[in-house]
Write a structure and sequence with these properties.
308 residues; globular; Rossmann fold; 5 strands; 7% strand; alpha/beta
Length: 308
């Protein structure tokens, strides 16, 4: 049987060198592939200035946002449609890390995406305002409390905010008696719909107050109770903040024509015949229920200067 030849010393010494050369070749290939995968950054999207600053009406459910939207919509220059929650789904895209990473891989950075989302969203509101012969639009939704950071990234210094607060126990009384999807989990967690409503109000107000502290120069804050008690004084201050001329017709909002759609806003507020106060309703509840509500909302009530 023939004897198998053993590798010479030279051959043995050459093996590591060949392996090293092969590793170098592979490393160069990997670098080339990485360079090939680097996204081509497209030119930044042009940021077109808006014709007029949009207005966002923000408040917890059952706090008077519908009343406020009717007042704004009664002004000859402002169009405030019924609640669309239009920006909330767009914020989901912005928060989706994989979606944004995919767009970056295609060459669209965050600023480019935001510019296009701004253009997309403002198209509908601007068109709506234009169709009604108005120069400026507003959008109201309690849902936007949960995406204020997105609204600010989207419109930034080009927009103004109107925040409306209402006594937390009155809000909790109303939320406890109605199905408000965003509050249902807290109502169940508390085992008491009224205490859960108070917790929901407090948590949402904390988000509003934190945002307001950071953007005080562009947030007009008002209380529902003051609005229904002194509507002209409050409305004059509001429109002065917005830089719009005063018009008496905003006080007769119920005599103006407004677009509406079933299920998109509070039907009672939408058909209101004027500034009818709804204040202190929580006092009709048993004292033990009120005590549980106060335990949940007391800290924020004090911060807002409300009676406890």
């Amino acid at each position: 049987m023939a004897e198998i030849a053993k590798p010479t010393a030279a051959a043995r010494n050459g093996a590591p060198r060949r392996a090293a050369r092969q590793m170098n070749v592979l490393a160069r290939l990997r670098r080339k592939l990485r360079r090939a995968r680097t996204p081509v950054l497209l030119a930044p999207a042009a940021v077109a200035p808006l014709a007029a600053p949009p207005v966002f009406v923000i408040g917890v459910h059952r706090s008077g946002t519908t009343l406020l939207r009717l007042i704004l919509d009664s002004h000859s220059r402002l169009a405030c449609p019924t609640e669309s929650i239009f920006l909330l789904p767009l914020s989901t895209l912005w928060r989706d890390g994989k979606a944004m990473a995919g767009l970056r891989a295609m060459g669209f950075d965050e600023e480019h995406v935001l510019a296009k989302l701004r253009e997309f969203s403002s198209y509908y509101f601007s068109s709506y305002a234009g169709a009604r012969g108005k120069q400026r639009w507003a959008d109201k939704s309690p849902h936007y409390i949960d995406c204020l950071d997105f609204v600010e990234r989207l419109y930034g210094p080009q927009c103004q905010y109107v925040f409306i607060y209402r006594h937390g126990l009155d809000v909790a009384c109303s939320v406890g008696e109605k199905v408000i999807r965003q509050a249902e989990a807290m109502k169940q967690a508390c085992g008491d719909p009224y205490a859960g409503g108070a917790r929901y109000w407090a948590e949402q107000c904390r988000k509003m107050l934190a945002f307001q502290a950071q953007h005080a120069n562009r947030v007009f804050s008002m209380r529902y109770e003051a609005l229904v008690a002194e509507p002209e004084n409050q409305c004059r201050a509001l429109f002065a903040f917005l830089g719009e001329p005063w018009e008496e017709q905003v006080l007769q909002f119920h005599q103006q024509e407004h677009t509406s759609a079933p299920g998109l806003e509070d039907p009672i507020a939408a058909t209101s015949r004027g500034f009818t106060p709804s204040v202190g309703n929580y006092r009709k509840l048993p004292v033990e229920i009120v005590a549980r509500m106060q335990a949940e909302a007391g800290e924020v009530l004090r911060e807002l200067g409300y009676e406890i």
